[in-house]
Amino acid sequence: MPGCTFWIDGKSYTAEEGTNLIEAAKQNGVFIPSLCYFKHIDPPLGTCRTCTCKINGRYDPACTAFVSEGLKVEVNTPELVDMRKALIEMMFAEGNHFCPACEKSGSCDLQHMGYELGISVSRFPHLFKDRLIDYQPRRMVMEHNRCIKCGRCMAEVLTPDGNRVFSAVNRANETMVGVDYAQEARLTEEEAERAMKICPTGAIIVRGKSLAQPFGERKYDLHSIQKNYRHTLTAKPKVTNFEKKTIATVSLAGCFGCHMSMLDIDDELLDMVELVSFNKSPLTDIKQFSRRCHLGLVEGGCCNDENVETLKKFREMCDILVVMGECAVWGGLPAMRNTIPLGECLEEAYLNSMTAEAGEDKIPYHEDLPRILDRVYACNEIVKVDYTISGCPPSPNNIWKLVRSVLWGEDYSLLYSEFKYD
Amino acid sequence: MGAVERSYGFFDVEPARSRLLSQLWDYQLTEGHISRQAIERLARDHGVSSIEIEGVASFYHFFHRPPAGKHVICLDNSIIAEFKGYDRIREAFERETGARLGSTDPSGTFGLFPTPCIGLSDQQPAALIDYYPFTHLNAIRVREIVQKLKNGASAADLCDMPQDHIRFTPANDRTIFFAPYVAGEALTKLAGLGAEGVLEQLRISELSGRGGAFFPTWKKWKACRNYTDTPKFIVCNADEGEPGTFKDRVLLNHEPGSVLEGMIIAGFTVGAAYGLIYLRGEYRWLNARLESEIQRFRDKGLLGKNVAGIKGFDFDIRVEIGAGAYVCGEETALLESLEGKRGEPRTKWFYPVEKGYLQLPTVVNNVETFAAVARLLVMGTFEYLKRGISGSPGTKLISISGDCERPGLYEIEWGMTVSELLDHCGAEDPFYIQVSGPSGECISVQEKFRRISMLDLLAQKDIRCGGSFMIFNHSRDLVQVLMNFAQFFKHESCGVCTPCRAGNFIVQRKLERLQHGLADLNDLKELQQWGAIMKATSRCGLGKTATNSLVQALDKFHDYFDGRFVRSGNGAIRHFDIEAAVADYERYKP
To answer: How does strand A52-55 pair with strand A72-74?
Structure first.
């Protein structure tokens, strides 16, 4: 095939004519995010749509386009970057992705794409659809909560005689990747592990093999695959016009892990006490606001009416409201109950559990007890939120950098390795 | 299954897999559902995993995995049905049969299921019972029907033959579709014209795809003719799934000959020997009519070997019946379905004219397009061009339903204004009109002086109507309409691509907020932005157009929406209903 010149965002590049656009861009050092494109799958799956670009003026996925002479492609316009983020956010909102509790965390393509695109919160409401976890296959557990229906396993995992092990069943929002138990049983241990490996998320888990690689040493734990993506930070805050600011903090439906993380900034604590003072906060044990604060830091979402009241108070008394940690951002681990009706949860916990004592078979209800909400709500479902910090818990630097930048207008940028959902 | 295959000797060119939908239908009709054993057997016969067969069966909503009852009642839940008394009919069926919507009664006699538009919007409320149509239902009729079924009557004997309701054709014999029909007359022109001649006639007449995409027919046929791979196929898209549309139903019932002839002409022109009609499952009851017309054609020598006396031109047609999936109206999804697969649209690497059915050159056209071709050849381009307006000649079939005196089929000359059409059908206090179905255009009655034509240039923005006109009066709740559409798309997305599968679900959730009065101005803005994202990134037309009406409605009906959302203080605190949120817990109050 002859070479040809094509254009990405106004710059010219060359590649062999007829090369797949994602491939051609990659050869030229241009990163086009994608979750379902793999060079060896032909025709391309075209399911995730993350690689949508503007190709000769039309919105089209790069994975189903070939380069030709004079092809004009837009990849990194603000609009397209936002669209791509939206698609990844949709996947997070559609499935039930609890990164802190997922075996695949750190090796997950979906999580990775979230990191690369800097998604700290999904703009879409989480759907919390109750999905199946299928324990029936012999070697695998199929975790439908985590499946993004990219179709990769359907195309690639076949028995030696070419039969499919996975196939899409049902339709629309009920679509899921079904497992053929008979065919699955015929896979060798290696083939099953390969299926787990090619799954871009933690939907396919092979029993006993899921945690073979330790956290911290996984593919996407520390480094972005994009070159020139890292930003360096100024080591010390450059503070002019100094004014000590007041901060309030609270933990709602959280575990205080974010607060612990806050204390982990080590020697910077010494800087911090010079710069800020704390009003209402578990750190000071001040129970009521005694003044209006510059900034409120909220950990945890809302699982009861006391949380809601406290959150509203924070909104009222703080100029800027920052929510930190997965629970505050979208519900987090407490939101695991969101796919199950409240009644079932309470009855399981208080009436039917193994540890329920005879005669104590009652669900607590008292006027002094906060009333429990039908589901766990993210903070932004209840009040307007100004900034979000992701992570479970967020890295200490992440919290401190954001606070400094918000209060004194410093540059805010994160190292890839500091940006986490787990 | 040998029997099925043998009866189509002519179609031996097709692989066995292309019979899968028919086989699944056989099981559904004889056993009332698709059992595990049936799936295992089909998997063995086709040499594939059983999950693959299950994937196909579970894609189509007329195939039921759990037993669906001896009599399967599919109740139309389109927006027109909703406004014409869907709830009352549902209650009546629930009361009479003992089955709750979405399940069977305890004895397993009746199954009651909601289904999107069944193409009877002019005679709502309507339902399919055992896939036979029942129209103009009311509580008393429901009781009678259920009683008779309980007493052993068959739905085939009890059903209503839907009226064609052809309400209007252009005056002074200017009708194109309903002029007197002589079987085979169009085919007599073929020998004289030759393939190039046919293409030339189509080019001059500016005939374009009547499914709603308006792609020039001559270009499509010419492209297919130029590909050399053989065999080639002609596919008639009779999967009229767009809610509110029923023009193809009327054509297939009233003028099946024209449709067949159009297909034969296409076969002659592009060099194809095989014609396939993909008839939507909802129109299963029309199959007998079609089959007898096909047989009549065969008997007259208009199908089979040396069609219409043209030496060496062999052409035959068979009908494949869909099983309930709106997305199969998308041509590549339709081809997948014909191949016995899940009806998932293909990525657009190739157009069907190059690699279509079985990856071979294929022409896919709408029922109305084929009928128009046959009529065009008979009347000639000179006569044809006299109808309609310059740049948009000819006539168009439009299905009118909703709030008007005379719902039914209207054949209008292109160029008629919305206002004239509203007068013809006796629209009652119209407020808002949904043109070309939920994926089409939403227009306000204030735009009633716009013309309906194929012209879609920037300077001349006419309304391009794919075939349906749903009229809603001032008393109708626009949010209810939009919610019905959102639920439809959520249910009908094929589930392959993220923006359509997740997006339609998310949009529907957002509309719930609007319906419950919990949305604020920001929610409306977000709906518009999210619609734009779905439009740009979805894989096929379904996702691209799913939010069309919603986005347009938000744009065109400011005043209406202004009263629907919460204005909360400084906008800082969103509306959150604490009492509703603790209601579940309050049940445990001693």
So the answer is: antiparallel
What is this structure's pTM?
0.88
What is the dotted CATH code of the domain comprising B397-473? 3.10.20.600
What CATH code would you report for B168-386?
Answer: 3.40.50.11540
Q: How many CB pairs under 8 A join A and B?
A: 192
B71-163 topology per CATH: Glutaredoxin (3.40.30)
Q: Which CATH architecture has domain B478-562?
A: Up-down Bundle (1.20)
Question: Is A59 within 8 Å of B59 when comparing Cβ atoms?
Answer: no
Residue A239 is predicted with a pLDDT of 44
Domain ranges of chain A: 3-76, 95-206, 245-342+367-418
| DSSP-derived secondary structure for A59-75 | EEEGGG-B--TT-EEE-
Torsion of CA A191, A192, A193, A199, to 10 degrees: 110
C-alpha–C-alpha distance, residues B498 and A48, integer Å: 5
Judge: A171–B495 Cβ closer than 8 Å, yes or no: yes
Report the mean per-residue pLDDT for chain B: 90
Residue B451: strand pairing partners: B417
Is the CB of A49 less than 8 angstroms away from the CB of B533?
A: no
Q: What confidence tens digit (pLDDT) does each residue in B335-364 have?
A: 999 999 999 999 877 899 999 999 999 999
d(CA B461, CA B453): 9
Q: What is the CATH number of domain A3-76?
A: 3.10.20.740
One-letter amino acid of A179? V
Virtual CA dihedral for B355, B360, B366, B372, nearest 10 degrees?
A: 120
CATH topology of domain A245-342+367-418: Rossmann fold (3.40.50)
- pLDDT for position B567: 58
